[in-house]
Amino acid sequence: MAAGRDDKKITSLMGESENYARVRTTALVIIAFAVVLFLLVQARFMLISLAVAIILFALTSDVIRLIARQRIGRFGIPNWLASIVALVLISTALLLLSSILLAQLNTVLMTTISYAERAPSAVASLFRWMGEDVERAVLNSLSSVEISGYVRTVAGQAGSLMQGTVLVILFVGFLFAERIWFDTKMTNFFEDEAQAARATKIITSIIHRVNYYLLVKTVVSLITGAMIYAVARFFDIELALALGILTFILNYIPNIGSIVATGMVALVGYVETGEAQTTALLFLITGAIQFVNGNVIDPWMMGRALRLSSFGIIISLAFWGAVWGIPGMFLSVPIMVMLMVVCSHVPELRKVAVLLSREGLPEDERELDRLSEEIESRKAS
């Protein structure tokens, strides 16, 4: 009897110990998540610049190899010179794009201020068919919105764009300087050549998928922006060029970007023309362009390169938008791609990759080896 009671006590103590360990682990996970979230918010300017720099570095690594393989007579181009040339090209392109973006944003903001007084009455008139009471209620609601405050907020965020560009250029320069020791660092970090080679394959897969996503997204966004510019010019919209450029940029934000761009074009068109029929036609044409390019051409070109869950994209968009604002929305899909690929090759996290993938079929080892072989053969050729 005494032995039985002792066994029960031991079993009870073991159960309590397991429950305590479970509670402690859960509490530590919650605390760690809160600390990481705090650091993400507090250091977001530097982290956003670092994330953009890593993406640009991944995009241009193949360009550096291409330049380094070129020969001038019997002399080849050294790797350090190829890195300097690539850095100069990236710096020039970033500064040029930042200047163009700031100029167009200033144009839109100045025009927004000039149209601020006309916009509420113009939008309210769209509800005239519902009665004067509804029109007056909409007008009163819109008139209470301080557009100038939002404009100042956007202008303040745009003002930090050039600072971020300079920081990105510095980060890319240091990454170029470190790239020649990357393989050695990976081997010494894992202390096992097989594990280092596997980690390199995973990083290569992430770079390949993110690069392909950005390439397709750039082509589709460029086509969409050009078509929106042509439509706006056809309707004699004053801000045709600005609308085309902003549509190109907004299309990098999945799902929401195209909706915002379509509404922006329609609103600007209505404020400028004041004609409901013209605005409706402009909205339909713009919406059709966004629908065809976003739901037909974009998925067709993407193929099976990403295979991300649509619901997962929305969750990632909402989370990174809340943490990093608008830049987080642009980076949400590349971050999700990285997370899905990493989770695919960690047995304990593979279920997370299943949830993030579109068909529930994340990348496996055979696909990873096949992709690495394709990339290596492409480099050798």
Q: Which labels suit this protein?
A:
381 residues; mainly alpha; 2 domains; two-stranded antiparallel sheet; 83% helix
Quick take:
The chain has about 375 residues and is an all-alpha fold. It is about 85% helix and about 0% strand.
Characterization of the model:
With 381 residues, the chain is mostly helical. It folds into two domains: 44-190, no CATH class; 192-381, no CATH class. The chain is built from 16 helices and two strands. A two-stranded antiparallel ribbon has the order 1-2. It is globular, with a radius of gyration of 26 Å.
Largest sheet: 2 strands, antiparallel
Quote the distance from N terminus to C terminus: 79 Å
Strand coverage percent: under 5%
Q: Roughly what percent helix?
A: over 70%
As an assembly, this protein is single chain
Helix/strand-derived class? mainly alpha
